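User: Hello, beginner here. Can you help me understand these amino acid letters and fold codes? It all follows right here:
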Amino acid sequence: MKDKKIIIGSDHGGFKLKEKIIAYLGKKNYKVKDVGAFSQDRCDYPLIGFDVAQNVSNNRFKRGILICTSGIGQSIVANKLKNVRAALCHNREIACLSRRHNNANILVLGQKFTSFNKTKEILDIWLKTDFEGGRHARRLKQIKNIEERKL
């Protein structure tokens, strides 16, 4: 990933993993904007997910990361916004395909199901994999038309 800026957010269920990811990305010279949660105190994930997704949707950040306990809630929230393609990834292959075929711009992780070692592998592949284009570009155009209610 050429642009070394990334936005990240989690709820209380993803807080520990988020903190480790921020430190890991910092060592790789990424500039990370953290929008919360800032502790393990219970909080609601939708507003944090919305914050990350809105920043990606408005192109303030090319990519973002969201974490919660399962990853499902954050995926649902993020994919409500135009121009967002949030992908819940549990392994390297899914992370690679989410970028190559879907041009995913938000990586979603479930802290309960993804160890930090696995997370590092997922992050590394997700950040370095480019979109293939070709037939996949046609499909993304169809998704954009759905977003804009042109179908």
Notes: The first strand starts at residue 5 and ends at 10.
